TrEMBL record:
Top-level taxon: Eukaryota
Listed name of the protein: Peptidase A1 domain-containing protein
InterPro entries xrefs: DUF229
GO CC aspect terms: extracellular space
Length: 191
């Protein structure tokens, strides 16, 4: 077993540039208890002959001046979090409840989350499940964005994403996925 206090860790901070390109900044030490300098880091730790490697994830807190637009104000409870949409692909709600009861409990009891109990997929596939939630329209109702078509538009240019409404009201917005290269919109759509 590797003990973090004895381990020597090095790696690279990862900053996303585009859907396919990341910027890597190497580091030779990772101090215990210090925040990461980017949201993601590829890390290798050694403790004697033992080795651990993996990806660390966190959220780098920017100053309010960097985050907030001129007309925006922080949330009343100063949590910095106003709306958070969490989705699990290829997982029914009942399977989610059976297999991840602790997560369900934290979402519903601790965070007081709104759970879409009656939600049903509108179509067949991941984009067809997420596009209506994020735009209030089906893929067929929106301008063409499929990569294989020459006349395809970029989703950011033509989709009325919900975060555009939040941004125009002064909210700070972010869209993220666990695997950018195979993201819900990156595979089939022009991003």
């Amino acid at each position: 077993m590797i003990y973090r206090k004895r381990a020597k860790c090095s790696g690279s901070y990862v900053t996303r540039k585009t859907d396919q390109i990341n910027d890597y900044k190497p580091f030779s030490t990772l101090p215990i208890g210090q925040p990461l300098f980017s949201d993601f880091a590829i890390v290798e730790c050694r403790d004697g002959n033992l080795l651990w490697n993996g990806i660390l994830m966190g959220v780098v807190r920017l100053s309010d001046k960097e985050l907030l637009r001129k007309s925006a104000t922080p949330s009343p409870d100063n949590s910095g979090l106003n709306v958070y949409i969490l989705g699990f692909d290829s997982l029914s709600q009942m399977t989610f409840r059976r297999k991840m009861p602790k997560t369900v409990n934290v979402l519903e009891e601790t965070l007081n989350s709104v759970v879409l109990n009656g939600y049903n997929i509108v179509g067949d596939g991941t984009p067809q499940a997420y596009i209506p939630i994020l735009t209030a329209s089906t893929e067929e109702e929106l301008p063409l964005t499929r990569k294989r078509f020459r006349e395809a538009n970029y989703v950011d240019d033509v989709y009325p994403f919900i975060w555009n409404n939040f941004s125009s009201s002064g909210y700070v917005t972010l869209y993220g996925e666990d695997a950018f290269a195979i993201g819900n919109l990156a595979v089939d759509c022009s991003t």
